[in-house]
Specification:
The complex is a heterotrimer of chains A (about 110), B (about 240) and C (about 110).
Chain A (H helix, E strand, L loop, with lengths): L7 H32 L1 H9 L4 H29 L6 H23 L1
Chain B lengths: L5 E8 L7 E8 L6 H12 L18 E4 L2 E4 L5 H4 L4 E5 L6 E3 L2 E2 L2 H9 L22 H9 L7 H5 L1 H5 L6 H11 L7 H7 L14 H5 L6 H16 L5
Parallel strand pairs in B: 1-5
Antiparallel strand pairs in B: 1-2, 3-4, 3-5, 6-7
Helix pairs in contact in B: 3-7, 4-7, 7-10
Chain C lengths: L2 H29 L6 H8 L3 H29 L4 H27 L1
Helix pairs in contact in C: 1-3, 3-4
The chains are: A mainly alpha (about 110), B alpha+beta (about 240), C mainly alpha (about 110).
């Protein structure tokens, strides 16, 4: 039987988990590319020119979105757990997503 | 249900020896029919071997909980008209629990975890002493009252994906019970409660996905109770008492 | 380390990182104006004690945070238990730290 679960807090949970996995997969690549700077700055530059491609730009937007959504989702979680929690939690979840969209949107607008 | 005199009801059947498989029944539709009525009709008129569990039929005992169209519910308090998907409903045993047979889930793990979460009273006085007065206005009493109407139906336990992924996780009901006792002025061992919910599968395994609170038929809020336990354990870690 | 200590390490590393992430996003938005180049990045970071400490602490916190988070996911979604679960998570944490330390050294040394 298909389990019904699509309520706001569950969606906030799954978004937090998937963005965390995404960031964890991206980080080793990120570190690897930066460490080129140590022995071969030209190689780093060659890689950085890739960032001018529209598709890579879109991927960058995705990464910043992951980071922002994970940051605000995490702050929401800590607020829910550690601050007096009678505050409406759904509003927090919505605000988290809105804030992430705003920040990554700003990045996207600046980048293009 | 104008124009429809029958419902298509799919029941997940099986048990420990046989994996669940769906069986479909055509059940006469009536006004004000509950899902429990439908299951009882099948057992009484179509297949007497269908196994299910119920007792009070009025939402007090918590024994008739089943999965209905993917949502754990008290079947006695769920009107068919409220959950009908087209002209069909799907009924199955509660999720996250072993199946005894058909729609009857084995509640043992659920109750074992209730005990493991230190969900028992630690008395402050003996029976020789006077009864201690309880201030109903006290903040901690209000926190205890918020969770006290739990009837152990296991709907929250079945709704929780953390339970599904982590067999050690104590689950929302047991942890809410621990939080209720933690806030009880007549409970003498709060540290034992915090210790019990700080181990493997304790309150810190919760991801605040809130399916417990979303689906509790009594409109209780285990999510916030578990958050309270997290807060209490964190406070104790930093040296604050309460 | 008990489940509770892992939880506290997870939350505290998150709180440490929150301001770092905000600054990091800010620097990204600023740095990509007019394109990225190795010279531009290194000009900003090389020899800077501030950026060494900033990214150094960031890498330590993220290694702890990601290892604990992935440990939970390995348990819930990949069915790993006990020593296998802890071992893989520890390797992830150490690997991230090694790669991250190398990157921080590369851009700030």
């Amino acid at each position: 039987m298909k389990v019904a679960r699509a309520h706001p807090l569950w969606l906030a949970y799954i978004l937090h988990r998937l963005s965390g996995i995404g960031l964890a997969l991206f980080l080793p690549v990120h570190f690897w590319v930066l460490s080129y700077a140590l022995n071969d700055a030209a190689k780093l530059d060659a890689f950085l020119t890739l960032t001018e491609m529209p598709l890579v730009k879109l991927a960058e937007f995705g990464l910043v979105f992951l980071l922002a959504v994970h940051l605000f989702g995490g702050l929401r979680l800590i607020a829910l757990e550690w601050l007096p929690w009678s505050a409406p939690q759904k509003t927090w979840a919505a605000a988290a997503v809105a804030g992430s969209l705003f920040i990554s949107g700003t990045f996207f607008l600046q980048a293009i | 249900m104008p124009g429809q005199d029958h419902l298509t009801v799919t029941v997940q059947r099986g048990g420990p020896g046989a994996p669940l498989r769906p069986q479909t029944f055509e059940v006469p539709a009536y006004n004000n029919q509950t899902v429990l009525d439908v299951v009882s009709w099948i057992q009484q008129n179509a297949d007497p071997t269908l196994t299910y569990r119920f007792a009070c039929r009025v939402g007090m005992c918590g024994s008739c909980a089943m999965m209905v169209n993917g949502v754990p519910r008290w079947t006695c308090r769920t009107h068919v008209s409220k959950v009908l998907d087209g002209n069909a409903i799907e009924v199955g045993p509660l999720r996250n629990l072993p199946v005894i047979k058909d729609l009857a889930a084995d509640m043992d793990p659920f109750f074992d975890k209730w005990v493991a979460a230190e969900g028992r009273h630690h008395p402050t006085r003996t029976r020789e002493e006077e009864i201690a007065p309880v201030n109903p206005q006290a903040e901690e009493r209000q926190a205890a009252n918020a969770g006290i109407e739990c009837i152990n139906c296991s709907v929250c336990y079945s709704a929780c994906d953390t339970v599904a992924g982590n067999p050690d996780y104590l689950g929302p009901a047991a942890l809410q019970r621990a939080w209720t006792l933690y806030n009880d002025a007549k409970d003498a061992d709060r540290d034992a409660i915090l210790d019990a919910v700080s181990g493997k599968g304790g309150c810190h395994s919760c991801h605040s996905m809130g399916s417990c609170t979303a689906y509790c038929p009594n409109e209780l809020d285990p999510l916030s109770a578990i958050a309270g336990l997290k807060r209490a354990t964190a406070k104790r870690f930093f040296g604050g008492r309460r | 380390m008990s489940e509770f200590h892992l939880y506290m390490a997870q939350r505290l590393s998150a709180l440490v990182m929150a301001p770092f992430v905000i600054v990091h996003i800010g620097v990204m938005i600023y740095a990509i104006q007019g394109g990225l180049s190795a010279a531009e990045i290194l000009g900003r970071t090389q020899g800077s004690v501030f950026w060494f400490l900033f990214y150094g602490m960031f890498v330590i916190a993220v290694s702890i945070h990601a290892a604990i988070g992935l440990r939970t996911i390995l348990g819930e979604w990949a069915g790993l238990r006990g020593r296998a679960q802890d071992g893989v998570a520890a390797l992830i944490g150490l690997g991230l730290f090694a790669l991250g330390a190398q990157a921080v050294w590369a851009v700030t040394a």
